[in-house]
Write a structure and sequence with these properties.
It is built from nine helices and eleven strands. The chain is α/β, with parallel strands linked by helices. It has an eight-stranded parallel beta barrel with strand order 1-2-3-5-8-9-10-11, surrounded by five helices. Strands 6-7 form a two-stranded antiparallel ribbon. The protein is globular, with a radius of gyration of 18 Å. It starts with a strand and ends in a 23-residue tail after the last helix. The C terminus is likely disordered.
Length: 311
């Protein structure tokens, strides 16, 4: 199991009261520190203002942050937990992803989901469709994005998204394409999208036994739908409160996640204290759980699931 950390960007209040320039300097410092500690990846949220309620505090925009961190780091993989597909035209999302993959030297992964934070949708003028419609849109958007990542021009006509002879050059560095992560706990449609389109399925705020059950079920579904189960990875973003305090309880939590077959664990140890000390203490607990932070370049390279270029 590989372990990555969230890069502070203000969304969960970690920069309340900070000067924006000082906050950004801290984000870059912690990103470099995470790389030095041997964490496999740096992740960001895709949100516009703070949680649980909107406040007049810092929230840095996700693609901008990742572009800058691509230049500030050299080894860690970079991505979202996860992009809200409703915030951008999917062809534009694919273009952003492709460019960041080049900037980073082939280290970007596109995490994407249906979105949930109603106040942001409405404040920024997106409305807030029912969950079924948001999931429909996610399916259309994945159709577009996979075509934009595939060789040639992209054409697709869907209910919620379409492209016609769209050119996406460069398409990124990674082969056969930039990895796609579908995020969400939905056992039917979300898991189905991951099986059809993605390299990884990302869960959030679950316990280890439930993750184990879900992995078994999804692998069985892969077999039923004609996909090699070994080509789909599984990751999990742990509850913030569960990883807040250093010590044996956190060590046991990490070991428990490793034992159920997760490929990746993501946590936010600097939420309450954006400091090197908090991040280093989490690294110590990861190692105490028997999980290596070896810092080897390319250690989390995609498993190579290639979705054929759609007709």
């Amino acid at each position: 199991m590989k372990v990555g950390v969230m890069a502070p960007q203000g969304w969960k209040g970690e920069y309340d009261g900070w000067d924006a320039a000082a906050a950004w300097t801290r984000t870059v410092e912690l990103a470099r520190h995470a790389e030095e500690l041997g964490f496999e990846a740096l992740w960001v949220f895709d949100h516009f203002h703070t949680v649980p309620v909107p406040t007049d505090e810092i929230t840095f925009e996700s693609f901008s942050v990742l572009s800058a961190l691509a230049m500030a780091t050299s080894r860690v993989r970079l991505g979202h937990m996860v992009v809200c597909t409703g915030f951008r035209n999917p062809a534009h999302t694919a273009k952003l992803a492709s460019t960041i993959d080049v900037i980073s030297g082939g280290r970007f992964e596109l995490g994407i989901g249906a979105g949930w934070k109603k106040d942001e949708w409405e404040a920024y003028g997106y409305g807030f469709p029912p969950i079924g419609e948001r999931l429909d849109a996610l399916g259309d958007d994945l159709e577009v994005i996979t075509r934009m990542f595939a060789p040639g021009h992209a054409t697709y006509e869907g209910t919620h998204a379409h492209v016609r002879d769209a050119i996406n050059i460069p398409k990124g560095i990674q082969q056969p394409r930039i990895p796609i992560i579908v995020g969400g706990n939905g056992a039917k449609r979300t898991a189905g999208y991951a099986i059809r389109f993605a390299d990884e399925l990302n869960y959030v705020f679950l316990d280890a036994p439930e993750i184990a059950e879900r992995i078994v079920a999804v692998r069985q579904r892969c077999e039923a739908e004609g996909r090699d189960p070994g080509t789909l990875r599984f990751s999990h973003y742990a509850r913030d409160e569960d990883v807040r305090t250093a010590g044996q309880q956190r060590v046991d939590l990490i070991a428990g996640f490793a034992a159920v077959g997760l490929d990746r664990l993501v946590a936010f140890p600097t939420k309450w204290s954006p400091t090197e000390e908090a991040q280093a203490a989490f690294a110590d607990d990861v190692r105490a759980a028997g999980v290596e932070l070896d810092g080897l370049a390319g250690s989390a390279a995609p498993l190579g699931h290639a979705v054929a270029a759609p007709a």
